[in-house]
Amino acid sequence: MIKKRLEITAVTGFARPACMIVSNASKFKSTISLNYKGVSVNLGNSPHSIMELMSLKIKPGTYVEITATGCDERAAIQTLVNSLIRNLYIEREKRGDSGTFSKKVCSSCYEAVFMDEASRS
Fold first, then answer.
1. Which of 78, 65, 60, 58 is nearest to 6 (CA)?
2. What is the domain count for the chain?
3. Which residues contact 42 (CB under 8 A, 6 or more apart)?
4. pLDDT in tens, 55-105
5. What is the CATH number of the domain that holds 70?
6. Closest CA to 2 of 30, 39, 24, 23
7. Strands (E), 13-110
8. Which domain holds residue 42?
9. Which of 10, 22, 56, 113 shows a CA-CA span of 20 to 30 A to 16?
């Protein structure tokens, strides 16, 4: 399981980020959820997940936590973080994230997964 805490910086509503997050999460086999103020939303049920995310009323300056569990959890988290940064919903982390990943094959599902180079040592 991997958890990533992110500060939301966008001053717009959360409808577009919600659609983007759910769309990206649906590409992975891992179970992915977003937690905000004690409420957890499973991102695997597309239409329902979008509505649940929007109902959380996530505001700029607040933090969310994205959790992924499964054989492609690292790639899932990295993809979500990168798309949020690219679309200016969060800022790039200023401390120790190496961002360097290597490709491996998952032993349980035999699909390509990405491993964080910093955690390998």
1. 65
2. 1
3. 31, 32, 33, 49
4. 999 988 999 999 999 999 999 999 999 999 998 888 876 655 444 444 455
5. 3.30.1340.10
6. 30
7. 31-36, 39-42, 63-69, 101-105
8. 2-95
9. 113
